[in-house]
DNA sequence: CGTGTAAGGAATTCTGACACG
DNA sequence: CGTGTAAGGAATTCTGACACG
């Protein structure tokens, strides 16, 4: 529930800088967004803003592409990973629920 | 000696976003640079790039200014703090040198 | 499919200066 | 001193499209 620093996930980097950081062309970066591999925010009038996480993800994508992996496949992998995380989260919540119901675990912050 | 992530100190944020983040006008942000309170890097053709640290420093400056502190005074405080840090660093190095000379402390990463 | 490019426009950023107080 | 603003230019970013393979 923290949300103050999170330097890594704040979307503040413009596409030009992301291009410098990743070595990808702006065209490629926009295309990967079109293929739903990356989700930048926008400034008021529409300029894309990325986070450091996005930059790392893009570098990852670039490596996969170099190995010949298609954007569609990269997206599939992403979704698979996402599902794993979500499932783990749910299992965790169920466990908490069980423990809480039986032993009354106090409101610990994790 | 680490230098990989350092999300907080990487200079990647353009002045427009910094303005949004801090609530300061671009004019003010540039002026504080002129007064040597802040030191952005530049892109190849000259656009300013700031770090999250810079953003925090600017918010600090804005608070001081609200209290009526002059830019010159803010700079003095900064230099004083800097000196303290540098002195501490030197004392630390001397201590290491002493210990190392007498007891041969191995190459610890700290 | 993945990426380059030219196109045209709108917003960004830069510097140096004048203004006011 | 600290900040606003108009000025003019150069670089940025955006979208939709055509191209190639």
From TrEMBL, chains A, B:
Q: Tell me the Gene3D superfamilies matching this sequence.
A: 1.10.1660.10
Molecular function (GO) terms for this protein are:
DNA binding; DNA-binding transcription factor activity
Provide this UniProt record's keywords sorted from A to Z: DNA-binding, Repressor, Transcription, Transcription regulation
Any Pfam family: MerR_1
Upper lineage: Bacteria, Bacillati, Bacillota, Bacilli, Bacillales
Q: What is this protein called?
A: MerR family transcriptional regulator
* HTH merR-type domain: residues covered: 12-81
What the entry lists under PROSITE patterns is as follows: HTH_MERR_2
Does Lyase show up as a keyword for this record? no
Which species is this record about? Bacillus yapensis
């Amino acid at each position: 529930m923290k949300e103050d620093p999170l330097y890594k996930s704040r979307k503040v980097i413009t596409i030009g800088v992301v291009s410098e950081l990743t070595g990808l062309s702006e065209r490629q970066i926009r295309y990967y967004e079109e293929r739903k591999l990356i989700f930048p925010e926008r400034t008021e009038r529409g300029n894309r803003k990325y986070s450091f996480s996005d930059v790392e993800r893009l570098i990852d994508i670039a490596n996969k592409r170099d190995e010949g992996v298609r954007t569609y496949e990269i997206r599939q992998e992403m979704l698979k990973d996402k599902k794993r995380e979500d499932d783990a989260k749910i299992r965790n919540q169920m466990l908490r629920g069980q423990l809480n119901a039986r032993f009354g675990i106090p409101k610990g912050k994790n």
